[in-house]
Amino acid sequence: MSDHIGMTIGEVAQRSGVPAKTIRYYEDAGVIGRALRGENKYRTYSDSDVQTLRFIHRARSLGFSLKEVTDLLALYRNRRRTSREVKKIALAHVAEIDRKIAELTAIRKTIANLAERCRGDDRPDCPILDEFEALDL
Amino acid sequence: MSDHIGMTIGEVAQRSGVPAKTIRYYEDAGVIGRALRGENKYRTYSDSDVQTLRFIHRARSLGFSLKEVTDLLALYRNRRRTSREVKKIALAHVAEIDRKIAELTAIRKTIANLAERCRGDDRPDCPILDEFEALDL
DNA sequence: GATAGGCCTTCCAGTAGATGGAAGGTCAAG
DNA sequence: CTTGACCTTCCATCTACTGGAAGGCCTATC
Lengths: 137, 137
Hints:
The structure is a homodimer. Chain A has helices at residues 9-16, 20-28, 47-61, 66-77, 83-117; strands at 36-37, 43-44. By secondary structure, the first copy, chain A, is an all-alpha fold. The longest helix of chain A is centred in the C-terminal third of the chain and has 35 residues, at 83-117. Chain A is flat, with a radius of gyration of 21 Å. Chains A and B meet through helix 3, helix 4 and helix 5 of A and helix 3, helix 4 and helix 5 of B. Chain A binds a DNA duplex through residues 8-10, 19-22, 25, 29, 37, 40-43, 60, 65-67.
């Protein structure tokens, strides 16, 4: 594991997949804490910041709101919360994720079904296109 | 199965979980076709419209853009596309969904791990909160 | 030492995807 | 005959970015 301790915003942007501008926005919006500044006033990031940003990136692309992500990250950071409370919130999130996985699986089935019934030739349509039955999840 | 053939927007909103205002917005935005109007100029919907709206609702909540959803629905509607093309696009979507499922599974693991390590008592924090290692997906 | 590129700041504009409200009108049920 | 649900159009607000401009500092290269 390389110890990239003094990364610039550009480097961390490239590593995390989150644009520099969006990282600054997240800082403003309180999703992530205010980044430490070097002597040159540049923001400095570590590997764990890259992890956090990747986490945010993933969660956002999976339909979690910025508020949900913020709360989730706060869950990890806030030492004043009781173990009971953290556990309760975390388990609620797990349940929500299981629901999302089930829904994705349903949509996958619908689309895979469409693909399956397509002959894959030059004919103008797939049999299933006539009816909207495929959306019958 | 009840044959709700002449549903109003309010009824379909309630059944699909998509607010009436949003349904009108989807019509404007070309996500769904212009709804048939009754003699009273009211939009009329059928059961299949409810299915479609539920599909849109799910897909949106899972991080698909409105454009992606629109294209996906067009895939079912457009009879001019070749079977080959439909199959190709459908399979690409299946691959994307599999990726999303994998990411959700990773996030689930992270959060379940946090919950697991919480004692669930009144102590002020969970052991894992000290380090950000839990995000090491 | 000049020039280029990455960073800093602040600010303002625009986009997507809704969501809410107001204005003004129709319609069907109690 | 008054509610309540629908119709229309329009305009404002919100979230979560994304982009650009202005003005300035840092760092590396020619």
